[in-house]
């Protein structure tokens, strides 16, 4: 079968487990071994100069993604190129020498999910899907709703009904259909798999199911941006939140591609994975020395990370072990403290997932697994305004007074 040139440098899908190759298509599981499929490429000659002269969004890396060359001219949200904040104040408090926060709250719908959805939209266009769908822990639903609106597609997204209010609103405001399901994310996800097999849903592009190989590639852009923003250098250490584990595995893939293409110098880097204790199946397996991840029932304020049966969990374990990293988890109380610490030191208001990453960073420093002298990047993948409840009891006015000098002096006399 002739390959479509609309997928840019992507030439095939390849099974992550057994390596069997398939044509580029709306498939996600290997028919030989049921392993997950990944996009395989034949890259052209991509130089730093090509990338640097590209648009200030993820399309500057289009030569490394499964998208057409003219992707930047199509109607999409143009996510990415978010700030890499040099976090000297926070580094000082933590006793670290060189610390950066990659702040993905700066994306169009205020989470890193805009990156992955942008790639899935291009795949949906190529395959002729007119409805975009997903199972979501919240942020993905909003990203799909907005991206579908911009691209002129219909959307129908599925979430656990007990999500944060802001995420419900963001996922509905763009005019697509939002369906709340009485159940956990894992139950929503199972339902979506059934829906894909049914004629009701078989014409739909589920960004994280039948478009998952393409969707997942969007996370590589985090690796590319971090390296480019550091002056074409991979950091020594990186701390990444884990829900399904897709983002973490693709950041590793992105770093490896940069090395293979000679865009950065070859170096060793260590990847650390962060979970909330209330949903820590990968961390539990890591600590027990297991290769298999036992599913759990989530109970944590970090709802965007509340996936009890993470599809890429075993790969996260592999990568943490192979690179000399680790997997760690923190309690809800530690998450809230970390959200406030990041806000107080750097003026960055993270959602609970960002609190998980910083909390885990602190814990890894305490137990000696993270080197305080090595160049470190931590991710904030979402926006604090979406998880206000986590801090609203503690972040209050210093006083409420009448508008008079006397009242102010009385309240703040010292
Ligand atoms: C979805 C999400 C993640 C993790 O994504 P996975 O690729 O499923 O591990 C991290 N942070 C936020 C804010 C998210 O919404
Ligand atoms: Zn296979």
UniProtKB/TrEMBL annotation:
Annotated GO biological processes are: isoleucine biosynthetic process; L-serine catabolic process; L-threonine catabolic process; threonine biosynthetic process
What residues bear N6-(pyridoxal phosphate)lysine in this entry? Answer: 113
Q: What is its EC number?
A: 4.2.3.1
Q: Say which domain of life the source belongs to.
A: Bacteria
| Keyword field | Lyase, Pyridoxal phosphate
Q: What is the top EC class of this enzyme, as a single word?
A: lyase
Q: Which GO terms describe its molecular function?
A: L-serine ammonia-lyase activity; threonine deaminase activity; threonine synthase activity
Q: NCBIfam families, per this entry? A: thrC
Protein name stated in the entry? Threonine synthase
